[in-house]
Amino acid sequence: MANRWINTLKDKDVTPEAFFLNRRQVMGGALAGIGLVGMGRAASAAPEGLEPNSYEEITSYNNYYEFGTGKDDPGKYADRLTTQPWTVQIEGMVDKPGAYAFEDIMKAMTSEERLYRFRCVEAWSMVIPWNGFELADLLNMAGVQSGAKYVAFETALRPDEMPGVAYNVLDWPYVEGLRLDEAMNPLTIMATGVYGKDIPNQNGAPLRLVVPWKYGFKSIKSVVKITLTDTQPATSWNKANAREYGFYSNVNPEVDHPRWSQATERMIGGGLFSKRIPTLMFNGYEEEVASLYTGMDLSKQI
Amino acid sequence: METIVDRVNGFVRKVPTWAVYIVFLVPVPWLLYQAQTGGLGVEPIKALEHELGQIALQLLIIGLAITPLRRYVGLNFLKFRRAYGLLAFTYVSLHLLVWLVLDVGILSQIWADIIKRPYITIGMAGFLCLLPLALTSNSWSVRKLGPKWRQLHKLTYLAVILGGVHFIWLVKGFQLEPLIYMAVILGLLVLRLPKRRKRQAVPG
Predict the structure, then answer these.
(1) Is B172 in contact with A122 (Cβ distance < 8 A)?
(2) What is the ipTM of this complex?
(3) Is A155 a domain residue?
(4) Number of neighbouring beta carbons within 10 Å of residue A66
(5) What confidence category does residue A1 fall into, taking pLDDT thresholds of 50, 70 and 90?
(6) In a domain, A181, yes or no
């Protein structure tokens, strides 16, 4: 079952390809004309919603430490990753464990577009038109057993193809996790595309998790393993620094990262003079997901 | 016979100090141009801030290398030391300015960051160490302060260590680059330690 969640941002809000490809030239021309005048994105945002970032922005500014810690490293090196063939091992507390071929998953799933805000823990953000399917559909395909409480994810680890894993920036492979109700929420998707094209390697090809109300690092890329479990799984950034990165890591403007404020964010693409904008509770998805956390002290259970 | 060291020293004697200023200030307009034209990527503010900070740290390290180079290699770049110090201060100031105006730009958040975020507190402390050094870098101050000037300017050592810690503290995960900077800084500081003299036993 797809289309459980209907976006208030419609297809027409997505910038047509011809326009997003040209936008940089348009902006470049405008900037050259005006000189040192900032172009705030907020001012140009569509009245009914948000303007998606350009394809170039989405694919040139990435955190994918397996390819290096620079924002441009994934764009430079991720083409080394072999994404065909690709299988996702689904195991643990499921009725049908096994290695699922990417093609078979795609045949079974209904793909749709989701225009989501994306908020990085580093206080920058984008708006991204993903293509993908709900994680719930994939989990139901494997048959979630009644005792399962959490979902653990793992990224591919290919030292031959990933120059960044030569350094122990994190404990490889990259792992992430969600509570089962978070995983089954209709907002949670496995993205396989951006702007209607196959998802580029630097964005987590061939399929990656997208949990739009959590900081970006929760949305694990290039997933090779999904495990249903009854214990809270370890997550990479939490292992690296538990004080700074909690298991939940919900976007929350009131709970600062110990080293920087989370009250505001900078939307990528506004140029040298773009202003910070206020960060929204649950990244603007409060209505959809706040009920998942009723009774929890979100300043403590970060 | 003229050695390489002699030749380099001879060349250095001929290079006017203003040339050093010009060469090392070229990155400023270049970075601004790049930031405006997409050369620094889709998030030019952070990129500019990081570039300026990194150049500042490199200049401080160059300044720190001058004495050991003279002592252990015989290369004499002493006439450029003030230039490197002032250039480093310029880059630190620009780095701070980008952070204040372009990056944060919200007064209440700036103040909260300086007080609450240790790596920013440390960065600010480093800047404050450099401020009196820049102000007393002129020849008049050197004469006026006399031996006190040397004492005061030892603050550079503290400033560069604070800069190195600032860099280590701001990255996510375990990253090598800031640790390499710190190792170089500490190495250069160790080289300046006065050679320990063996104490002679005092007949008792």
Answers:
(1) yes
(2) 0.84
(3) yes
(4) 26
(5) low
(6) yes
Tally of domains within chain A: 1
Instruction: Provide the pLDDT for residue B194.
Output: 78
**Cis peptide, bond prior to residue A173, ω within 30 of zero:** yes
Contacts of B45 in chain A (CB under 8 A): 266, 272, 274
By residue count, chain A amounts to: 302
Side-chain-side CA neighbours of A179 within 13 Å: the count stands at: 11
Q: Residue A119's closest CA among A289, A299, A266?
A: A266
CA distance B114 to B104: 11
Residue A46 lies in a domain: yes
φ and ψ of A267, to 5 deg: -75, 125
Locate tokens 């996510």: which residue?
B172
- In chain B (204 residues long), the average pLDDT of successive 10-residue segments reads 87 94 97 94 96 97 95 93 97 97 92 91 96 96 94 96 96 92 97 72 58
Separation of first and last alpha carbons in chain A: 32
Greatest pairwise CA separation for chain B in angstroms = 76
Q: Which residues contact A263 (CB under 8 A, 6 or more apart)?
A: A253, A254, A256, A278, A279, B109
pLDDT-above-70 percentage for chain A? 84
A61 to B106: CB separation less than 8 angstroms, yes or no: no
**Residue with structure tokens 């209440």?**
B108
Q: How confident is the model at residue A15 (pLDDT cuts 50, 70, 90)?
A: low
Quick check: is A2 in a domain?
Answer: no
- Structural contact between residues A296 and A255, judged by C-beta atoms closer than 8 angstroms: no
Q: How far apart are CA A50 and CA A8, in angstroms?
A: 10
**Domain limits for position A284:** 13-292
A104 contact partners, CB below 8 Å, separation of at least 6: none
Place of tokens 């919603």: A49
Nearest to B117 among A60, A71, A259 (CB): A259
A157-162: average pLDDT: 98
For chain B, list residues whose CB is within 8 angstroms of any CB belonging to chain A: 35-38, 41-46, 48, 102, 104-106, 109, 112-113, 116-119, 169-176
- The neighbouring-strand residues paired with B116 are none
Cα dist from A223 to A97, A108, A156, A192, A208, whole Å: 16, 17, 6, 11, 6
Look up the CATH number of the domain holding residue A78.
3.90.420.10
Q: Give the distance from residue B151's alpha carbon to the nearest chain A alpha carbon, in angstroms.
A: 34
Q: How confident is the model over A186-236, as pLDDT tens digits?
A: 999 999 999 999 999 999 999 999 999 999 999 999 999 999 999 999 999
Burial of A62 (0-12, 13-18, 19+ CB in 10 A): buried
Q: The pTM is what?
A: 0.85
DSSP 8-state assignment for residue A231:
S
CA distance A71 to A292: 32
Which residues are CB-contacts of B187 (< 8 A; sequence separation ≥ 6)?
A: none
What's the rounded Cα separation, in Å, for the pair B99 and B48?
A: 9
